[in-house]
Amino acid sequence: MLRRSLSAEAGANPWALLAMLAATATATSACETERPALAHALPLGSVSSAASATRPAEAACPPEMALVGSACVDRHEAHLVLADTPEVTHPPYERPVPGERYLARSLSGVIPQAYISRNEAASSCERAGKRLCTAREWRAACRGPQKTLYPYGPDEIRGRCNTGKAHLPSILFGMQSSVINAEANFNSPLLNQTPGYLAKTGEYAACVNEYGVFDLDGNLHEWVSDQLWAAGHRAVFMGAFFSSTAKDGPGCQHVSRRHSPLYRDYSIGFRCCRDRAAEPKSGAE
């Protein structure tokens, strides 16, 4: 079991994110035990009509983003390209190279970037003219227009998103992998290269909501911009990854706030947001 998921933070926290967590009813998670692989490349017919209905409003956002309230949200988890040569993609199984400048990109059918810190993710969004999503924006995108516990509805449908996989470090490095040599184990490129675990963006084609945003439950955790200062500098990531349990919350409630902004491992990626474009003014002033 991943170190972040072993225990919840004790004590009351005045941070506003808790209020959002309390506002959504708790549901039973299906991520506690390993389950056989299920077919997941389901057709998008159930969401295509809803997505097309919102298309005129989404002129305020680039095509790789969806309009969610007043924010544009990347449809897919991010990968990295080199800022100076954007046709070159950074290998997603490797840590960002210190001193290299990266841009975040959102595209279907690619391996998303993990092994990245909150600060590195924020910088790559900013260079792309975007920013990390706030916790509130991320939660709104995940819950969809109907404000459900899962992106696709109120109840978990097993196999619809990339969740419920076994704890891979324990398989590859032994049951003490979270204690002995943990940093190296949790940042091993082997983890996300193991078939059947990390999926390409949009590969779980039915893990989507009416906004047309994919993989908000499962695949990778995602850094958000919120940070905690009162009890030490902590960063926040949201959404389950492919081996999450329910201890940090089911579905769109999943949140962790125990790590430094410099922390990174195989389970955490990100996506970017930006403010929607201002609507053009009509007529002369």
List keywords for this structure.
285 residues, 7 helices, paralog of FGE (formylglycine-generating enzyme), disordered N terminus, alpha+beta
Structure, explained:
The protein has 285 residues and is an alpha+beta fold. The protein has one domain: paralog of FGE (formylglycine-generating enzyme). It is built from seven helices and ten strands. The strands form three sheets. A four-stranded antiparallel sheet has the order 1-2-10-5. A four-stranded mixed sheet has the order 8-7-6-9. A hairpin with a 5-residue loop joins strand 6 (221-228) and strand 7 (234-238). The protein is globular and about 55 Å long. The chain starts with 16 loop residues before the first helix and ends in a 10-residue tail after the last strand. 46% of the residues are buried.
Summarize the helices and strands and which ones pair or pack:
Layout: H1 17-23, H2 45-53, E1 65-68, E2 71-74, E3 78-82, E4 102-106, H3 118-127, E5 131-132, H4 135-143, H5 168-173, H6 182-186, H7 189-193, E6 221-228, E7 234-238, E8 255-259, E9 268-270, E10 272-275
CATH fold label: paralog of FGE (formylglycine-generating enzyme)
- Number of discrete domains: 1
Strand order in space, largest sheet: 1-2-10-5
The whole-angstrom Rg is 18 Å
Are there runs of 5+ residues with pLDDT below 50, and where?
1-56
Question: Summarize this, please?
Answer:
By secondary structure, the chain is an alpha+beta fold. The protein has 7 helices and 10 strands.
